[in-house]
Amino acid sequence: MTATQTPEAAGRHLPVIENEAAAGRVILVCEHASNAIPARWGNLGLRAEERAAHIAWDPGALGLARGLAARLDATLIHAPVSRLVYDCNRAPDMAGAMPARSEVHEVPGNAAISAEERLARTQAVYLPWANGLHNLIAGRIAMGRRPVVITVHSFTPVYFGKPRAVEFGIIHDADPALALAIHAGAVAAGGLDARINAPYSAADDVTHTLRLHATPYGLANAMLELRNDLIATPEAEAAMAERLAPLLARAVAQVAAIGAGG
Amino acid sequence: MTATQTPEAAGRHLPVIENEAAAGRVILVCEHASNAIPARWGNLGLRAEERAAHIAWDPGALGLARGLAARLDATLIHAPVSRLVYDCNRAPDMAGAMPARSEVHEVPGNAAISAEERLARTQAVYLPWANGLHNLIAGRIAMGRRPVVITVHSFTPVYFGKPRAVEFGIIHDADPALALAIHAGAVAAGGLDARINAPYSAADDVTHTLRLHATPYGLANAMLELRNDLIATPEAEAAMAERLAPLLARAVAQVAAIGAGG
């Protein structure tokens, strides 16, 4: 692991990049890696157990992404701030960018955000993240190494009181090629309830990163969602990475072979 | 005019922003405003008359854009470096980003660009431009002021020896609403040979800015192309701005009224 940028510079929270010199094509992206709330935002009015829960981050996603990065020789980029301060997978005018409510939890510190505060969070968290990711992607393209963009997320097994059966969701935006290839591989491999566009889809505004960073450059891309009870320990994260890495490698090779996103 | 950023910081060529405090919705974008070649790139092997020609920039586009900015109370952002060093309306792997040939002119300094040099130009010119434009657009969105993005270009009246009859081209990418409204207004007003998707279209890779900065946020957008013999003097630029500003204002209002890009 090499953190190539300082986590905070002049009040801006820069993305953390690991394995930047990786030789592989894949860039792994983890927008909800951290539940950290920088001091200027206090605790947003939340209790400690709420700040540790899935509303604040995607538990297990960073560990899984690190396991995948090691196995795929991929670069990993992740956001250093809780999605409750700013959800880096949302545009600044989406309700979920600074949510006043997440699932069944009120977020008091987000109940009444002024335009100036929305701008301040956008400049402190979203723009350093988005421009840092853009620098990484455009730099690879300039070097003649068009990347494949895969975002790594986790979801809660019970949502609004209802259990979710899906274990592995693969979500696409405008270009479904990579997501469909990953899904087909997961179904063929068996052992996981793998579904396309579940538990969410692009219609739920969850594909902002793909739209902003992959689609404009025609890069192959997909969003992965793992049920977080399956990646609840370091051992489980590693086991899931071991299971998914070959699926992802095959799907990336297939999409490259048919010329999409190549 | 207020240039809010220094033109060069640590070898990076930042965009110039004028009228940043404008109250209007429109952000005018001029990627080909300048024919300046920073010292590190010498003269790219070109004669002075080539460096002054349309291959190096869009003559008249910046003057027209300034006239439009004043009349629409719009913010203007423009690139400070010649498109022959890096064309900010192209992705880093497009042939036109650092063209070895432009129309009938060879560009010796671009004949054999290494991957490292492509990366260096991307980091020095393209990324500061693109991230600066992103900062401007996302900041407006965060403040609840979703902008309308209009790029301003000019084209040569004779291309590969062939005269062009079109005088005013309006080009769209994925969302045609604003371009169609501008075109309809121009046809109704008369006096200019106005055409949709001429003399180029998105299929010619000329809409990178729209794809990267407007489409992901669902912002209304269009690209304007004026034949440069019609904006060849300051007086002609001002007259064209006076003619086009009301057309643009009406089209923006129409698109806002039907909800597109709003």
Task: Write a structural description.
The structure is a homodimer of 262-residue chains. With 262 residues, the first copy, chain A, is α/β, with parallel strands linked by helices. Chain A contains 6 helices and 13 strands. Chain A has one domain (8-257): Zn-dependent exopeptidases (Aminopeptidase). Chain A has helices at residues 48-52, 61-72, 115-142, 177-189, 208-214, 234-257, and strands at residues 8-9, 12-13, 16-18, 26-30, 75-78, 101-102, 105-106, 148-155, 158-159, 162-163, 168-171, 194-196, 221-227. In chain A, the strands form 4 sheets. The first copy, chain A, has a 7-stranded mixed beta sheet, with helices on both faces. A two-stranded antiparallel sheet of chain A has the order 1-2. A two-stranded antiparallel sheet of chain A has the order 6-7. In chain A, a hairpin with a 2-residue loop joins β6 (101-102) and β7 (105-106). In chain A, α2 crosses α6 (234-257) and α4 packs across α6 (234-257).
Supply the key terms.
disordered N terminus; homodimer; two-stranded antiparallel sheet; Aminopeptidase; 262 residues; 7-stranded mixed β-sheet; 13 strands; alpha/beta
Query: What fold name stands as the CATH topology of chain A?
Result: Aminopeptidase
Biggest pleated sheet of chain A:
7 strands, mixed
| CATH homologous superfamily placement of chain A | Zn-dependent exopeptidases
Mean pLDDT of chain A: 94
Order of helices and strands of chain A: EEEEHHEEEHEEEEHEHEH
Q: In percent terms, what proportion of residues of chain A is strand?
A: 15-25%
